[in-house]
Structures are given as structure tokens and as C-alpha cells.
Specification:
about 475 residues; alpha+beta; Ribonucleotide Reductase Protein R1, domain 1; 17 strands; three-stranded antiparallel beta sheet
């Protein structure tokens, strides 16, 4: 800041200077006396000119030491530059970390994709060697899959690979004979009824769920061309779902996701809480060879813990579209199974019937089916013998290296005794091979972890007559 100085005969005062530029003082520098007052304010005592006229305006600098000003400017610039440099360094570090994470994630994803490709190769080789698919096959052996992963030669990271048979499950879309259409498949309807009777108590004082309501509602969800006619007394068509809050669109078409069945009237979220004796954790297709009991279906996110023991208990006070269980006092222990371990939406095949587009045969591979699925296939009252079928599949010789039993057509007759009628019914829904598989691959590279799930169809190529695999769908879990 500079000061404007005015002088008169009788007094002198100091005012802020205007932007008038410097003018020469009427007094020599030697006649100026500096007076320090008011906590450092610089005032100048000026002699009064003899001509009693107003002095010429001039400007004086407040600070006399220019080197101090320069030092302050330099320090300010250094502070600004230091702050900018630190921010640039931090930004560069964040960018480098992000680039590394992106590169690691890409590497993990490519490793998982390679594992899925390896699984498809193994499935093709298996089809070339035999026409049976079972828990005894190399694609179902965790040890063989682990050794095959090692042959991929990854120098860093880890990959876990699990292959499961989709046709060892209940095909939810097979409840109808054909699509489009509205005719129910009686064999599949009976299968659903046996399955639901296993998990729903007949005592309606504790369990209000109704197997007939579930089956009728499933049929109404799938069927078309029936003018939205409701099946039985408890089915549900579009009007019912539109009245829900929020509304639900009834597709009148096949399911494309297993969890889609939980939108259907009457189907509770605890549908796959099963009596503990129907859950087999020793089956090699459902557990690691290390015995840790981990499930290959862990990629299917259903919001429930992998293993929980308690009886079903659903509250219907919110007005949801499922029947309720009034208490959790059902007898026995229950274990949760992921819906993807019991049900599948795959199995489609071109229909040979005139006027139809496609159908789901609904036959279940008893060589790979879980105990709960096997139990639903058996006549009522014989559910407990399902575990005997599962044990027969995995029996080994004394050395533990060779399976004891062949799983060719009709092998179940060596284990359980069915009446001719029951055997005929069983054979209509049983099969011994598969062409739809689920491949779960999880890859870890540094801190990046990627889990991919692919659904594969294995088929013999028409032109070459050779076996091949087609990737139908791949998702990241």
C-alpha cells in the first residue's frame, strides 16, 4: 500500500493515495523524519513550505525492504507448486493402482474363461468314450479337474472348476407337454406332487402351503392359448399378478431362470428347505474330494446361507403371493439346498409332434441326481431308499480307486424293489446320460477374483458326426 501526503502551514495529515503515479517531493530526502506510532503505522513529519501552498502529491512505499517481499512471493509459489506436485503424485498413484486392478481382473477373467473352455473339451472327450454320464465320470471327479487345470500352465493365480449335470434335476418347464400349449404333463405333475409332499406338512395347523395350489399356479404361469383360464380352484393367471403390489408380469412362457419360480403364487422362499435325511453331502458330484463339503452350486446367489438347519417359517402378514407356515414347530431338522441344485430351466428339445415348436422331456439322469430328486422320483413311502441309490453309485473297491458298480440302464433294480407298475412309471422319467451341463469356474489373480458360470449343451454335429459343445449362456456371479 502507498500513502498520499498533503501538507499545510498549520497541520499535516495522511490519506490513501490515488492512482496518480509518482511525483517528486518538494523536500530533500534528508529533511524527512520517520515517526513510528500506532503499532507500526508509518507517518512522516513534514516541514511546512514558506509559500503556504498545498504541497505536490507524491507516493511512498509502505515497505522499505523489497528483498522480504520477494522472499514471501517465492515461499507462496513454492507452497502452490508443492501442493500441485503432491496432488499430481496422488492422482498418478491412484491411476496406477486402478490400472493394476483392471489388469488383474482381466487376467482372472481370462483364466476363468480358459477353464470353461477346458471343461467343454473334457465333456467332448467323455462323450467320445461312452454314452453314460454319471458321478463316476472324469468330468465329475474334482481330482481330475484339478490336474487338468494344472496342465493349462498358469504361472500365477489359482483356478477352481466344477462341472455338474443339469439333467439330474427337475425340469420346471417340463410341467407342460409342449410350447406353446396348455396340456399338462401328467408324469411331471406327479413328480412335483411327490416332491412337495416331502417338504410340506400334511398338518395344516402348522403348514398352510398347498401342493395343488403350487402345481396349478405353475401350470398357469407356463401355459398359453387357454384364454387365461385358471387351473383348478387355486391357480392364478395375469389378473392375479397384476393386482399384486408391486404388480408382476405373468409370462405364459417357459422360465429362463430358476429363481423365476419364486414369483409364482403359492411358492415360498423356503421351498428347498428339505428334511436333513434327504440331503447327501458325501456324493462326489456335490462335494470336494478334500471333504470340505463345499457345493458346486455356490455360484447361484439365492440370499440364503449354504447350510442352515431349521424348519420352514414364513410370515404372510405382508400380503405376499405365497402361503404361510404358521409356526416353526415342524418335527425333525431341515437343511437348505440351493434351488439350482434341485431345479433347472434347461432340457429343451425340438418337438416331433405336429403343430408344436419345442418341448421339455423332463427325464432325469438318475446317475447324477441329488438324493432329494431321487426321492421325488420314487413312489410315496419309499423316499428313504433314495440314499441307497446314491450310495450304490459311489461304492468303490477296497483299494478305493475303482468304482464297484456299473451305472448302465436299469441298474436301480439291483438296489430297490419296485412293483411292475411303479417300475414303469419310474422308467418314464429316468435317463442315464445328459447333454446339458453347468460349468462353474472361479479364478484368483492377485487380489482379483472372478467367478463365471456357463451353461453348455453337448451334441453330435450333423455334418461331421463328431461331438461338440455349445456355450448357451455365461454369467458372472
Amino acid at each position: 500500500m502507498t500513502l498520499m501526503i498533503t501538507g499545510y502551514k498549520t497541520n499535516a495529515k495522511i490519506e490513501p493515495a490515488m492512482n496518480t503515479g509518482y511525483k517528486k517531493s518538494p523536500w530533500p530526502d534528508s529533511r524527512l523524519t520517520l515517526l513510528q506510532i500506532n503499532k507500526g503505522t508509518d507517518l512522516f513529519r513534514l516541514p511546512v513550505p514558506q509559500n503556504n501552498k498545498r504541497t505536490t502529491l507524491f507516493r511512498l512505499p509502505v515497505l522499505q525492504n523489497n528483498r522480504g517481499i520477494a522472499l514471501l512471493v517465492v515461499l507462496a509459489l513454492i507452497s502452490v507448486l508443492m501442493a500441485a506436485a503432491l496432488e499430481l503424485a496422488r492422482g498418478s498413484g491412484d491411476s496406477a493402482d486402478m490400472d493394476k486392478r483392471t489388469a488383474d481382473r482381466f487376467q482372472a477373467e481370462e483364466m476363468a474363461k480358459s477353464a470353461i473352455g477346458l471343461a467343454m473339451f473334457i465333456l467332448v472327450r467323455d462323450a467320445e468314450q461312452n454314452d453314460i454320464d454319471s458321478v463316476q465320470e472324469m468330468w465329475a471327479d474334482p481330482g481330475i479337474l484339478e490336474a487338468a487345470i494344472q496342465l493349462l500352465g498358469f504361472r500365477q493365480g489359482a483356478v477352481d472348476l466344477v462341472i455338474t449335470d443339469e439333467l439330474g434335476k427337475i425340469q420346471v418347464n417340463a410341467l407342460l407337454e409342449q410350447f406353446p400349449g396348455d396340456a399338462i404333463n401328467n408324469d411331471q405333475s406327479a413328480l412335483w406332487e411327490r416332491f412337495l409332499n416331502m417338504i410340506i406338512s400334511s398338518d395344516k395347523s402348522v403348514d398352510l402351503r398347498d401342493p395343488a395350489e403350487i402345481i396349478n399356479s405353475l401350470k398357469d404361469w407356463l401355459d398359453s392359448g387357454d384364454d387365461d383360464a385358471i387351473s383348478g380352484l387355486s391357480g392364478a393367471e395375469a389378473d392375479y399378478y397384476q393386482a399384486l403390489d408391486p404388480p408382476v408380469i405373468c409370462s405364459n412362457a417357459p422360465f429362463d431362470r430358476v429363481d423365476g419360480i419364486f414369483m409364482v403364487k403359492g411358492i415360498p422362499e423356503n421351498l428347498t428347505y428339505l428334511p436333513a435325511h434327504l440331503v447327501d453331502s458325501s456324493n462326489s458330484i456335490f462335494s470336494k474330494s478334500s471333504g470340505n463339503g463345499s457345493s458346486p452350486y455356490s455360484g447361484y446367489d439365492s440370499g440364503f446361507p449354504e447350510s442352515s438347519f431349521f424348519a420352514p417359517d414364513i410370515d404372510n402378514s405382508s400380503g405376499s403371493n405365497v402361503s404361510s407356515v404358521s409356526s416353526n414347530n415342524l418335527e425333525g431338522s431341515y437343511q437348505y439346498l440351493d434351488p439350482g441344485r434341485i431345479f433347472t430351466v434347461y432340457g429343451i428339445e425340438s418337438s416331433k409332434k405336429e403343430g408344436t415348436r419345442f418341448s421339455y422331456p423332463g427325464t432325469i439322469n438318475i446317475n447324477t441326481a441329488d438324493v432329494a430328486v431321487l426321492a421325488a422320483m420314487l413312489p410315496e413311502g419309499m423316499e428313504d431308499q433314495a440314499s441307497e441309490l446314491a450310495d450304490f453309485r459311489t461304492e468303490r473297491e477296497v483299494n478305493g480307486k475303482v468304482f464297484s458298480n456299473n451305472l448302465d440302464s436299469g441298474w436301480y433294480k439291483k438296489v430297490i424293489a419296485l412293483s411292475p407298475k411303479d417300475a414303469k412309471n419310474f422308467d418314464r422319467i429316468a435317463r442315464y446320460s445328459s447333454n446339458f451341463f453347468k460349468v462353474a469356474a472361479t479364478a484368483q489373480f492377485n487380489d482379483a477374483r472372478i467367478s463365471l458360470t456357463g451353461f453348455v449343451k453337448r451334441e453330435k454335429l450333423t455334418e461331421s458326426g463328431k461331438w461338440g459343445c455349445k456355450l448357451l449362456q455365461i454369467t458372472e456371479d
